[in-house]
C-alpha cells in the first residue's frame, strides 16, 4: 500500500476519498504546467531582447579624448550618468581592452553610434551595449597595454550629468599586468559624486571629444599591438656622486662597489638575449631616490633591482640580504637600514616634491600592493639562487619602508650584497671575481622570475 496517499496516483485507501487515477492526476496538473511554461517563455523573451525592465540608472553620455599626465599623452574615457553609479573595471589582452561595466543601467545615448574607430591613441576602437539584461558595458580597444593611472567622479552640473572619469596611460606590459590583477580582485566599486582635488589637478586635460560620428571616427586602421622582444630590467647602483654611501674598514666607498656590480649585472643580463638592462647611472653621479623610480617607470621596466653594500654597528655582521617594500619593518635592523638609505635624499638638499602626489592616489596604492606581492616572489627567487654564496640565504627575505622601492607598477627589490663594515665581505666585494659570481646568480634569478611571473608574449 502506498504511504503517500493523496499525492500518489493509484487507489486511495478506504475513507480517504475518490480514487486518484493517472489520467485524473494529469488533468489536475496540466493547467499548472501550462502556466509555468508560459511564464518561462516570457522570461526568456525578455532576456533575449536585452530589455531592462527596471533600470536604476541611465548612461546618458560617452566621451573619449586625450589628456596629458606628467608630460605623457594619455587616454581619457568619460561615462556620464543620471546619478552616481558603481562600476567594475577590467583589463584584457589579445587585443588590449579596457572594459567598464555599470550594473542596473540603461543606455540613453541616441546621438552616439554603438561602435566605431578611434583616433585618440592608444585607443583604436570602441563599442558599447549590454553584458546582460541589466548591465551596461563600454569596451575600448587599444593598440598598447594602457592601464588606468587615475579615476575619479565629477558631480552633475552645468547641464551635465554625473561623470566617471578614467585616465589610461601606457606604462608597459608589467604595469598592465599588475593593474589587471588588481582590478580583477577589486570587482564592483562605488564612486563618490565629487572628485578629489588631487585627481582634478593631476594633469592638464585637453578637450575630450564626444564619441559621435563627426568627432571620434578615424579612417586610420588600428595599429597592431607591439610584440614583446625582451624584458626590461632596471638596475639601480645605490648612492653616487656626493653621496658615498657606507664606508668600509679599508675606506672602500659603497658607491663604487654598487656601480661596479651594477655594470657587471647589466653585462650578464644582456648576454641572456632576453633582457634589455638599463642602468640608473653609468658613472659617479648623484640621483635622488624619486629620480631613480621615475627613470625606471619611464623605461617601462619589468623589474627594479637596487644594489647596495650594507653597514652595521658590529663588524661581525656579514652576508647577503634581500629587501622588499613594507609599511612595517620586519625587524629593527631592517628599519634602521631603510632609515639610513632614505636619508640619501637629504645630501642633495631638501626635496620639496618627495611626497609624490601619486603616493596619495587610492588607485596607485592598490597597484602598489600587487607590486609588493610580486616583489616577494622575486625576493624568494633570488634567495634560492644565492644559497652557495658566503652566508647563503641565512639572512632571508626582509622588508621595510625603502623609498627607492616605491614604484607602484613593477616588482622592486633591494639587494644588500654584503656588509662593507665586515673585513671579509669588504674584501670580497672589492674583487671582480666575487662580483661576477654574485651577479651571475642574480641574473639567473631575475630570468627565472620573469619566465614564471613576468609578462609573456
Q: How would you characterize the overall build of this protein?
A:
With 457 residues, this protein is an alpha/beta fold. It folds into 3 domains: 5-49; 57-205, Immunoglobulin-like, CATH 2.60.40.3500; 231-453, Zn-dependent exopeptidases (Aminopeptidase), CATH 3.40.630.40. The chain is built from 10 helices and 18 strands. It is elongated, with a radius of gyration of 30 Å.
Which labels suit this protein?
457 residues; alpha/beta; Immunoglobulin-like; Aminopeptidase; 6-stranded mixed β-sheet; 6-stranded antiparallel β-sheet; 10 helices; elongated; disordered N terminus
The residue fraction in helices comes out at 25-40%
Beta-strand percent range = 25-35%
How many E-type strands? Answer: 18
Largest sheet at a glance?
A: 6 strands, mixed
Secondary-structure element sequence? HEEEEEEEEEEHEHEEHEHEEHHHEEHH
Shape annotation: elongated
First-last Cα distance? 70 Å
CATH architecture of the largest domain: 3-Layer(aba) Sandwich
Give unreliable regions as ranges.
1-13, 45-53, 193-227, 350-360
* DSSP helical segment count: 10
**Average pLDDT:** 82
Amino acid at each position: 500500500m502506498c504511504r503517500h496517499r493523496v499525492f500518489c496516483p493509484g487507489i486511495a485507501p478506504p475513507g480517504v476519498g475518490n480514487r486518484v487515477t493517472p489520467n485524473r492526476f494529469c488533468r489536475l496538473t496540466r493547467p499548472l504546467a501550462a502556466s509555468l511554461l508560459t511564464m518561462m517563455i516570457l522570461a526568456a523573451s525578455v532576456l533575449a531582447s536585452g530589455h531592462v525592465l527596471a533600470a536604476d540608472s541611465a548612461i546618458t553620455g560617452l566621451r573619449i579624448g586625450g589628456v596629458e599626465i606628467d608630460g605623457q599623452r594619455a587616454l581619457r574615457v568619460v561615462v556620464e550618468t543620471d546619478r552616481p553609479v558603481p562600476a567594475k573595471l577590467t583589463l584584457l589582452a589579445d587585443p588590449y581592452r579596457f572594459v567598464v561595466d555599470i550594473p542596473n543601467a540603461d543606455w540613453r545615448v541616441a546621438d552616439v553610434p554603438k561602435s566605431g574607430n578611434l583616433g585618440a591613441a592608444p585607443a583604436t576602437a570602441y563599442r558599447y551595449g549590454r553584458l546582460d539584461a541589466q548591465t551596461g558595458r563600454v569596451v575600448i580597444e587599444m593598440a598598447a597595454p594602457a592601464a588606468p593611472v587615475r579615476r575619479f567622479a565629477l558631480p552633475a552640473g552645468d547641464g551635465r550629468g554625473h561623470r566617471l572619469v578614467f585616465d589610461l596611460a601606457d606604462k608597459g606590459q608589467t604595469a598592465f599586468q599588475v593593474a589587471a590583477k588588481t582590478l580583477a580582485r577589486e570587482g564592483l566599486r562605488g564612486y563618490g559624486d565629487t572628485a578629489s582635488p588631487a585627481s582634478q589637478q593631476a594633469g592638464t586635460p585637453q578637450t575630450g571629444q564626444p564619441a559621435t560620428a563627426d568627432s571620434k571616427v578615424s579612417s586610420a586602421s588600428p595599429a597592431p599591438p607591439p610584440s614583446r622582444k625582451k624584458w626590461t630590467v632596471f638596475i639601480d647602483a645605490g648612492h653616487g656622486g656626493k653621496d658615498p654611501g657606507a664606508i668600509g674598514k679599508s675606506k672602500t666607498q659603497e658607491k663604487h662597489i654598487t656601480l661596479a656590480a651594477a655594470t657587471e649585472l647589466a653585462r650578464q643580463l644582456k648576454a641572456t638575449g632576453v633582457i634589455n638592462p638599463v642602468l640608473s647611472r653609468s658613472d659617479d653621479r648623484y640621483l635622488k631616490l624619486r629620480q631613480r623610480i621615475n627613470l625606471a617607470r619611464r623605461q617601462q621596466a619589468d623589474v627594479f633591482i637596487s644594489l647596495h653594500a650594507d653597514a652595521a654597528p658590529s663588524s661581525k655582521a656579514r652576508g647577503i640580504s634581500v629587501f622588499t617594500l613594507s609599511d612595517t619593518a620586519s625587524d629593527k635592523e631592517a628599519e634602521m637600514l631603510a632609515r639610513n638609505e632614505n636619508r640619501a635624499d637629504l645630501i642633495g638638499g631638501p626635496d620639496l616634491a618627495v611626497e609624490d602626489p601619486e603616493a596619495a592616489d587610492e588607485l596607485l596604492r592598490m597597484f602598489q600592493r600587487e607590486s609588493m606581492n610580486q616583489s616577494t616572489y622575486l625576493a624568494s627567487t633570488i634567495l634560492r639562487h644565492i644559497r652557495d654564496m658566503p652566508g647563503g640565504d641565512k639572512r632571508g627575505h626582509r622588508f621595510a619602508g625603502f623609498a627607492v622601492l616605491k614604484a607602484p607598477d613593477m616588482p622592486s627589490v633591494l639587494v644588500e650584497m654584503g656588509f662593507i663594515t665586515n673585513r671579509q665581505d669588504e674584501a670580497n666585494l672589492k674583487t671582480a671575481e666575487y662580483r661576477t659570481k654574485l651577479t651571475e646568480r642574480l641574473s639567473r634569478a631575475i630570468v627565472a622570475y620573469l619566465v614564471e611571473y613576468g609578462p609573456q608574449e
